[in-house]
C-alpha cells in the first residue's frame, strides 16, 4: 500500500525572513510508502530510486563545487557492488566492516552490503588500531571497506592482528607494500559491470530478506568499557523511519527536502535519521565537510533538516551570542528581548505588549540568524544526549524550530521526539513514536517495547538477557511522563550520584548548567558517596584569552589556571550556577583539567559525550584531593 505524498515546499520568497517561510502545497511525483509493509531497507531504497530516477540524491563537495549523484546512478552502484561482494565469496550473514567519513560512498556501501545479504558493521573514523581490532575480532568481519589512505593507517595493523578479514576494498587508492592475509580491491573495479544482471541478482536476493533479518551491527561508542555490538534488524530501522515520517510529514508537511549530514554515519542516529529516513522520503542528502567548514556548508547547502547532538548546539549558541555581543547595544537589547520572549512562551505566558517586540525581532535579529542556517530550515533535530532547555529556548527565540528526540542505539535509535502537534516542551523529549510502547518501572527506569528493539548484543547473550527482559528494553535512563504524555528524562540510572546522605543528584543537569557559562567549556561533576558535589572544569579558551588580555597576562592556559585571580573569575561563574541549585546540588569545590576532554584523548565519545570512567581514571587523585581538608 502507498499513500500519495502531497508535500509542502518552502516558498523561496520566504527566505531571509525571521520565521519559517509560508508553505504551499505542491503535488510531488512520489508515493509515501506504507513502511509497515516494507520488507527491508534495500527494497525501500530501490523503489525510491525507480521513482526518482535522475533527480539528485547524494551531494558532496568535490573540487570546490557541490557534485550530485542521482538516485539512478546510486542504485546502479549499489547493485554492482553487491554483485561484486558475492563474487568475492561473501555469504548471507557475513559481516562487512565500513570505515569512512560521511560521503556518498558510505551510503552506497551500506546499501550494497545489505543487498548482498550481508551485515554492515560501521566503525568510527576516530577509532584507534585497538578499537578496530576489537570490532574485527568481535564481529568476525570477512571484508573491510575503507575510504582513504589516512583511515587505512590505523586499520591495516588491526586487520593483520585480527586475521579474520579476507578482503580490503579501498574507495580511494591506497599503497600497500605487499598483500598479506587479505586481498586488496579497488572500489572503482567493483562498481563496474553488467548493470541489468546485477539488479536482477539483487532483486532475487532481497526477495528473501525479511524485517527480522539482521541489517547492521552498530558498536556503541560507550562511556565506559569496550564497545558492544548492537545487532539491528531491517524492521527496527524501518519502524523508526515510519515513526519519524508520521511526525515530520504530519506536522511540518513534506516536499523536496534536503538533509545536511554531519554526525558520523557510524552513529545510530545519523544512520537512521540522516540516511534511511531521507531515503524513505525521497530527500536529498548533502554531506558536510567537517566541523571547521560546517557554518559555510550550512549556508551553501540550505538544508531543510539537520540532525545534531546537543554539544554542537551549545557551541553554535555560544558562537552566535558572542557575535551578537560584538555588534553593540541594540543587538544585545534585541537578543535579551528574544530570550525573554522565549522564556515567557515556555512558561505559557502571553502578553499583548510582546506583539510589537515579536514584529521587531522578525525584521531584525531573527532573519540574520536563520540565514546562518541557510534560510530554509524547517526544524533542527537534537538527539544523542539531553538538550539543556536553555539552549533549546535560545534557538526557538531565534525563530528556529527545535525538535528534541530521545533514544539509544539499542532502539534503532529513536524512541520519542517533540513535535508541534503534541505541544513542544523543551524540558521533555516528547511522546513515544508511533508503534512504540513505553512504561516506567518502579525504580523510575524507562522501559521500551516494539519492533524498534534490537535483536541483541552481538555474541553477548548474557548482556542481552540483562538488557531486554520479556521483550522490554531496559534503557538505563530514569524518567517519567508529564501531563501531556511526553517523556521527561531525569538522568542515567548508572550515572546518578548518591551522596553520603543518600540524596540522588543528576550530574548531567549540573554539567549542562556549568557549560552554559561563557567561562566554562566542559565539566564533569562527582560526589558519589561523598559529602558534597565537586567539579572538574575545562575553561573556555576564547574567554580565557579575553580575560588574559584584559588583565595584562600572557595567554598560557595552564599558567593562567594557577593564578588566584583567574580561579576567582571561574569561581564566580560556578557561584552563579549554584544560585539556581538546591543545597545538595551545589558545587562546593572544583579543579581544572590539564586539557580539553576530546575524542583523541579518549575522554569524549564520537558523539561528544564525556567518558566518565576515562576522566576519573586520569584525574582520580585530583578529584579525591577536593574532598580532603
What layout of secondary structure does this protein have?
Layout lengths: L1 E9 L12 E11 L7 H12 L3 E7 L2 E6 H17 L7 E5 L4 H12 L3 E5 L5 H11 L3 E4 L2 H14 L4 E4 L12 E4 H4 L4 H12 L7 E6 L9 E5 H19 L5 E4 L6 H14 L2 E4 L6 H8 L3 E4 L1 H16 L3 H18 L7 H10 L1 H8 L6 E4 L6 H9 L4 E6 L6 E4 L19 E4 L4 E5 L6 E2 L3 H7 E2 L2 E10 L5 E6 L4 E2 L5 E2 L1 H9 L4 E7 L6 E7 L1 H10 L6 H4 L3 H15 L8 E6 L19 H14 L4
Parallel strand pairs: 3-13, 5-6, 5-7, 7-8, 8-9, 12-13, 12-14, 14-15, 15-16, 27-28
Antiparallel strand pairs: 1-2, 3-4, 10-11, 11-20, 16-17, 18-19, 19-22, 21-22, 22-23, 24-25, 26-27
Structure report:
The strands form seven sheets. The protein has an eight-stranded mixed sheet, sandwiched between helices. α8 (234-252) packs across α9, α12 (329-346) packs across α13 and α12 packs across α15. The radius of gyration is 25 Å and the shape is globular. The protein is built from 21 helices and 28 strands. With 629 residues, the protein is α/β, with parallel strands linked by helices. It has a domain at 497-625: ANL, C-terminal domain (GMP Synthetase, Chain A, domain 3). The chain starts with a strand and ends with a helix.
Amino acid at each position: 500500500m502507498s499513500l500519495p505524498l502531497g508535500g509542502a515546499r518552502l516558498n523561496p520568497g520566504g527566505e531571509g525572513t525571521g520565521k519559517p517561510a509560508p508553505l504551499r502545497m505542491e503535488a510531488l511525483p512520489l508515493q509515501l510508502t506504507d513502511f509497515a509493509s516494507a520488507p527491508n531497507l534495500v527494497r525501500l531504497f530501490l523503489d525510491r530510486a525507480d521513482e526518482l530516477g535522475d533527480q539528485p540524491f547524494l551531494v558532496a563537495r568535490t573540487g570546490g563545487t557541490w557534485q550530485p549523484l542521482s538516485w539512478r546512478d546510486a542504485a546502479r552502484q549499489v547493485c554492482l557492488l553487491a554483485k561484486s561482494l558475492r563474487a568475492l565469496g561473501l555469504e548471507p550473514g557475513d559481516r562487512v566492516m565500513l570505515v569512512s567519513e560521511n560521503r556518498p560512498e558510505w551510503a552506497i556501501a551500506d546499501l550494497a552490503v545489505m543487498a548482498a545479504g550481508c551485515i554492515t558493521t560501521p566503525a568510527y573514523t576516530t577509532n584507534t588500531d585497538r578499537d578496530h581490532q576489537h570490532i574485527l575480532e568481535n564481529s568476525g568481519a570477512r571484508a573491510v571497506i575503507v575510504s582513504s589512505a589516512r583511515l587505512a593507517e590505523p586499520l591495516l595493523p588491526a586487520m593483520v592482528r585480527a586475521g579474520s578479514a579476507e578482503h580490503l576494498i579501498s574507495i580511494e587508492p591506497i599503497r600497500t607494500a605487499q598483500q598479506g592475509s587479505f586481498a586488496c580491491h579497488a572500489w572503482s573495479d567493483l562498481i563496474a559491470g553488467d548493470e541489468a544482471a546485477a539488479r536482477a541478482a539483487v532483486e532475487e536476493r532481497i526477495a528473501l530478506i525479511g524485517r527480522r533479518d539482521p541489517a547492521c551491527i552498530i558498536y556503541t561508542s560507550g562511556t565506559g568499557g569496550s564497545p558492544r555490538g548492537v545487532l539491528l534488524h531491517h524492521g527496527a530501522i524501518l519502524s523508526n523511519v515510519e515513526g519519524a515520517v508520521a511526525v515530520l510529514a504530519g506536522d511540518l508537511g513534506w516536499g523536496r527536502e534536503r538533509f545536511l549530514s554531519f554526525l558520523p554515519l557510524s552513529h545510530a542516529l545519523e544512520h537512521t535519521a540522516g540516511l534511511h529516513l531521507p531515503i524513505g522520503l525521497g530527500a536529498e542528502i548533502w554531506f558536510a565537510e567537517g566541523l571547521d567548514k560546517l557554518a559555510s556548508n550550512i549556508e551553501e547547502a540550505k538544508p531543510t533538516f539537520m540532525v545534531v547532538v546537543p554539544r554542537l548546539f551549545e557551541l553554535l549558541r555560544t558562537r552566535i551570542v558572542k557575535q551578537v555581543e560584538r555588534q553593540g547595544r541594540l543587538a544585545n537589547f534585541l537578543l535579551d528581548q528574544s530570550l525573554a520572549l522565549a522564556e515567557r512562551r515556555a512558561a505559557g505566558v502571553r502578553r499583548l505588549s510582546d506583539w510589537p517586540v515579536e514584529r521587531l525581532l522578525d525584521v531584525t535579529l531573527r532573519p540574520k540568524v536563520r540565514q546562518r542556517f541557510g534560510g530554509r530550515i524547517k526544524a533542527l533535530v537534537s538527539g544523542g544526549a539531553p538538550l539543556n532547555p536553555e539552549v533549546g529556548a535560545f534557538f526557538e527565540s531565534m525563530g528556529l524550530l527545535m525538535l528534541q528526540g530521545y533514544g539509544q542505539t539499542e532502539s534503532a535509535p529513536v524512541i520519542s521526539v517533540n513535535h508541534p502537534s503534541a505541544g513542544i516542551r523543551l524540558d521533555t523529549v516528547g511522546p513515544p513514536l508511533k508503534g512504540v510502547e513505553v512504561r516506567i518501572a518502579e525504580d523510575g527506569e524507562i522501559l521500551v517495547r516494539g519492533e524498534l528493539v534490537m535483536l541483541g548484543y552481538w555474541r553477548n547473550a548474557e548482556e542481552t538477557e540483562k538488557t531486554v527482559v520479556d521483550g522490554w528494553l531496559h534503557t538505563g535512563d530514569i524518567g517519567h511522563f508529564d501531563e501531556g504524555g511526553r517523556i521527561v528524562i531525569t538522568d542515567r540510572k548508572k550515572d546518578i550520584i548518591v551522596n553520603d546522605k543518600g540524596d540522588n543528584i543528576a550530574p548531567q543537569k549540573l554539567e549542562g548548567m556549568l557549560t552554559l557559562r561563557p567561562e566554562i567549556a566542559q565539566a564533569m561533576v562527582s560526589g558519589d558517596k561523598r559529602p558534597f558535589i565537586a567539579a572538574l572544569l575545562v575553561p573556555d579558551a576564547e574567554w580565557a584569552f579575553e580575560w588574559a588580555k584584559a588583565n595584562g597576562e600572557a595567554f598560557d592556559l595552564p599558567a593562567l589556571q594557577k593564578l588566584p585571580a583567574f580561579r576567582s573569575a571561574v569561581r564566580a561563574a560556578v557561584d552563579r550556577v549554584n544560585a539556581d541549585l538546591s543545597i545538595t546540588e551545589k558545587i562546593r569545590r572544583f579543579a581544572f583539567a590539564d586539557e580539553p576532554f576530546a575524542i583523541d584523548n579518549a575522554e569524549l565519545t564520537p558523539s561528544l559525550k564525556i567518558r566518565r570512567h576515562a576522566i576519573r581514571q586520569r584525574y582520580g587523585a585530583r578529584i579525591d584531593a577536593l574532598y580532603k581538608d
